[in-house]
Amino acid sequence: MRKIIVVYPVLFIALLSVSPVFSQRFTVGILNGINFTQPQGYFTYGKWEVKNGPVAGLFLGWKLTKILSVQSEFNYTVLNYSHKQYNNPGYLYYPPYLSTIYIAPYYYNLDEKWEYSFYRIPLYLKISTPTKLKLELALGGYFSFRDKYEVPDYPISYNFSDIMMSPATSSEIPPKYDAGLFYSVGLAYPIAKDFNVYLSGRYFSGKRTYIESVAATNGAAELTFGLGYSGFFKSKKVVNLSETESDSTSHTLTVTPKMGMAITGNSGSDNNNMYSDAIGLSTGLSFIYRFSKHFALQSDLLFERKGYKLKGESNSLFKYTPGGYYTLDNRLSLDYVTIPMLVNVSFGEKFTLYFNAGIYAAMLINARCTGTAYTTTSTESSYQVYKITVYNDIDGYMKSNDWGWAAGGGLQYPVFKKYKLDLEFRYNQGFSNIYAYDYNSFRVGNEDTEFINRSYSVSLGFLIPIN
């Protein structure tokens, strides 16, 4: 499912980009950078920290058309994962076969850490704008070979003299090979004849399980810098770009980098008095193929943060469950890669008014509950209040995909002759429940078991003609 969601817009753009006039060129270069790890798995408790690791390697590419190329790499990367659990009071009893001996309570924190190093070979298609400062979008897959690895040591016994836990080395052996999806957005700029520098934001998502306890696969965002040389195998055919340039209104394909904010909420709850809207981020790229003066097809590649706020009493940290064990002031954040497919209708010449509507598909990247929770205990002689700083990764409770409909509109105004500023408003509504757990057989009272995403967003973009 995830593969279908991400692949179709790049194929859509690639088919539209093929041109019979181009100069084939071979490029080779070096890259290095840093990753920000985020495994994907059945997470329900604790904090999965973002950790950093190196990325370094070589890349080579072959230009197929003016804007389409195929590229591969050979690189080395290290993925570090860290899972932090809450500090909990503990009581030690020693030895277990004698009468219980009470030892003063202490606090321990079981932090789990994994480290994997990989040799990795990505292969992907890349689309670049035909401008001096190029905007580049790439999508493909990768295959990797695991090199070294470290997995957590877990406590199995206590040392009575110094109250320390003795570690036991895990017998877990991670898979030797992995494969998955790769996509990136970046910039390229010429610094000398046949030399270009590259800056890219990339994301890798694996398929093999590397953390068995939560069925987690590899995942990491990367920021890389590269230097490439493209002076090999030059074609003698020269393209006169001035002959192909025209006013922006006659361009059939455009790309719009954009950024905005969204008001997001939950429209599926039976207890809406406990939920309120949250502010989220919406940013990415929009592609429009215009096949007539007034009609066009539009597809986006967006990062969106959705979710809601929860305030009140509940037995759950992220949804309403009867019981009132916690007094909450929390936020649920759902991070998605969203790809809508819209029909676009526009009016006007210089000042353009447009409307769009269609469906979207979204892939869940992270699900996280943060905030504050209070619990109370009381006896005849005491009353205690405990404050908990909540930071739980809860991907395991949410479905990995979301589908829905979208509708909106906007205004465009030309700047710098060929370009346009784009101001867009959009409403999104999910089709179905995003909560993954099945409560059909044992629902507690009027517990919330249905969550449907909705959002109102506004974004500002800069429209760039492609061909």
Q: So what's the overall shape?
A: flat
CATH topology of the largest domain: Porin
How is the biggest beta sheet arranged? Answer: 8 strands, antiparallel, barrel
Corresponding CATH architecture of the largest domain: Beta Barrel
Structural class: mainly beta
Give the CATH level 1 class of the largest domain. Answer: Mainly Beta
Quantity of strands, as a count: 23
Q: Can you give a write-up of this model?
A:
By secondary structure, this protein is mainly beta. It has two domains: 1-245, Beta Barrel (Porin); 246-467, Porin (Beta Barrel). The chain contains two helices and 23 strands. The protein has helices spanning 2-17, 241-244; strands at 26-37, 47-49, 52-63, 68-84, 88-90, 106-108, 112-128, 134-150, 153-159, 164-169, 177-192, 195-211, 216-232, 253-266, 275-276, 278-290, 295-314, 326-347, 352-378, 383-393, 401-415, 419-430, 453-465. The strands form four sheets. An eight-stranded antiparallel beta barrel has the order 1-3-4-7-8-11-12-13. Strands 14-16-17-18-19-21-22-23 form an eight-stranded antiparallel β-barrel. Strand 19 (352-378) and strand 20 form a beta hairpin. The radius of gyration is 26 Å and the shape is flat. Residues 1-23, 89-108, 156-169 and 238-250 have low confidence and may be disordered.
Summarize the structure.
The chain is mainly β. It has helices at 2-17, 241-244; strands spanning 26-37, 47-49, 52-63, 68-84, 88-90, 106-108, 112-128, 134-150, 153-159, 164-169, 177-192, 195-211, 216-232, 253-266, 275-276, 278-290, 295-314, 326-347, 352-378, 383-393, 401-415, 419-430, 453-465. Strand 12 (195-211) and strand 13 (216-232) form a beta hairpin.
